[in-house]
Every structure is written in structure tokens, then in C-alpha cells.
Inverse folding.
């Protein structure tokens, strides 16, 4: 990914936060020289309550422990729901891969965030494998 595209992506996400999508925080992962040109990680935080922020903090702490977690862009959204209380939704490639009611106790939030990391990481690896299995008619076979 070129430097211009990376800067444009980061600025557009930051502008979305300023434009009124709530407390929208974009956080890149990794040291500046550690990622290659094709790898960029972005975790967007759209949580509103103390419980949602705790989920985001715990999720990012657990996500950093994954070996290739810096290859994916994630969005964490907190939604109010009359029926279920606040819900947390984690999206990967604009697809929700984890949805759960947000517990009130911080100890329970820690457990749910660990479960979310495992489920999102599994979905990310599976989507990566599906992408590798698809044959592209424009690409020649390796000999």
C-alpha cells in the first residue's frame, strides 16, 4: 500500500470522527518501521460508555498478542438496545463477526473481550484462506 493511500485512509477516518460519528478513535498498530507496505492495521473505536471503552481497551490488549493481528482493519461499535441493553459489535471487512450484549461488570467484560478476540481472529484467518483459494483469471499459474 502506498504512503499516500495510507495517509488518505488515516485522515478520512479521523475526519469521520470529527464530522460527528461519536467518539470515533482510530488507532494504528505497530511501530512506524515495523510494518511492510502491504500491512496496515486500524482499529476504529465507536463506543460510548465506560463499559464500551473497557471492552475496547481489553480487546486491543488481547489483539496485540496475536502474531499477525496487524494485518486486519477492525471496527468496534457499541449500540444501545432496549431489549438487550448495550451491544458490542466487531466488524471485519464491513461484516459483523462478533455481536454480544455488553455486561455491566468489568470482570465479565474482560472475559467477553477475550472471547471476541478469539472469534474475530478465527474469522480473519478463515477469510484470508478463502481469499487465497479463489483463483483469479487475470493471474497466471506459478510454475
Amino acid at each position: 500500500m502506498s504512503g499516500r493511500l495510507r495517509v488518505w485512509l488515516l485522515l478520512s477516518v479521523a475526519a469521520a470522527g470529527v464530522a460527528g460519528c461519536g467518539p470515533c478513535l482510530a488507532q494504528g498498530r505497530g511501530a512506524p518501521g515495523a510494518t511492510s507496505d502491504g500491512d496496515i492495521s486500524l482499529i476504529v473505536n465507536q463506543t460510548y460508555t465506560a463499559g464500551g471503552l473497557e471492552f475496547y481497551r481489553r480487546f486491543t490488549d488481547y489483539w496485540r498478542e496475536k502474531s499477525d493481528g496487524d494485518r486486519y482493519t477492525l471496527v468496534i461499535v457499541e449500540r444501545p438496545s432496549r431489549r438487550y441493553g448495550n451491544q458490542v459489535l466487531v466488524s471485519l471487512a464491513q461484516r459483523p463477526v462478533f455481536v454480544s450484549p455488553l455486561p455491566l461488570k468489568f470482570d465479565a467484560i474482560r472475559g467477553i473481550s477475550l472471547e471476541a478476540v478469539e472469534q474475530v481472529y478465527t474469522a480473519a484467518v478463515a477469510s484470508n484462506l478463502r481469499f487465497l483459494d479463489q483463483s483469479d483469471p487475470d493471474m497466471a499459474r506459478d510454475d
Remarks:
- Residues 3-133 form one domain.
